[in-house]
Amino acid sequence: MQFNSFEYIYFFIAVFCITYLLNFRQWYRLRNLYLLVSSYFFYAQLQFWFVGLLAYITIVTFWGGSIIYKAQQKRGKAKKELWITILLTLSNLLFFKYAYMANSSIVLPVGLSFFTFQALTYTIDIYRKKIAPDSFLNVALFIAFFPTLLSGPIERARNILPLLKCSFPISTNNVQIGIQLFIWGVFKKIVIADRLAVFVNEIYYSPSSYSGSTLALAAIFYSFQIYADFSGYADMAIGSARMLGINVMQNFKFPYFAGTIKEFWRRWHISLTSWFTEYVYISLGGNRVSKARWIFNISSVFLLSGIWHGATESFVIWGAMHAVLYLIEHYWGCKQSNILYTIYVFVMVSVAWVFFRIPDFTQACYVIQQIFTNITSPIYWGSSSFSTALTTLLLIIFLIKEWHMYKQKRSYNYVEYLLIILGICLFGVKSSQFVYFQF
To answer: Is 309 noted as a catalytic residue in this protein?
Structure first.
């Protein structure tokens, strides 16, 4: 069951109506139980056995939080208990990530990376004394909450758990904002991302068959494809939660308008970037260390981000490239945003995306080499030039709308959203799985 399907819409309407009826403070446990069962039902539609992993993570998280808290109360420290909990929590993720890379016939559970990292915020925050242990029901719902379950945003326990103990602010305003966010997310996915994917998949299926200019166009298209795909999912997730009265953190803030590499990472996949910053970078000492150690800390975060996406050489290279770009910018790069540097940032990010998209390192290097040495060759416009031209036009319209939203903040105009719905009906294509489901 994907967000951009009628099955999900029917499912969500049922969940919304019953949640609304149960949304009284004295009934919050019953409401939370209903949402938990609904979330497990939602996840079971993908693969029934996936719910076993979700239950395992939940039990380890709840148990780990309890023993960490008790150890701190008893002897003032619980580092051993923390590390045992972290290792048990990460065990499934490490097994399936590496087993999947070694044997592609193994099914990688959808959302495993996301709800594993979300679960870790509960135990680590208890260890850091930012929160106290909560009920099993609330912890289970926090980890399994269906809007954020499959691909985030990766929320923090301290942000969500307090909301589960009172009535949700299900208001007309929240419902309207949620619907509009959801519609915009659907547009991003099936009108922009999935249309771009048609051209990108054709070219990257056999990169050696195409010229440098065609590969460059595919690289640009993929940059926007992955953004529209992932941010479209985030908008649908945030919109679904918002309709239920829960504010989930923003995951994207127009990253391709960023003026520096550092700013790009403040705008791209914010929930994961901030997770690594809070739970890895700061734990390593942050910037309150020597220059050499700071370089190590920054590099570790980017390399771990690459490994989080997948245990292949290409993902490690992708993370390493961003580390190098970040460090070069810090010591020698542009300190203030300008249009030329913004273009440079987009080009460098797009080059790095090639390694993200193509798992074979040698083939990815070939694509980069062709882009920079054979860029003046004629462009192949795909098996349907008209379709590619239409996709390009829709992409330009999308970017104009994004620029308007970036400059004017987020605006909600009913006429615009009626046109967006019309665009979905006229130009939407058969949807594929979300890109980040593979992580």
So the answer is: yes
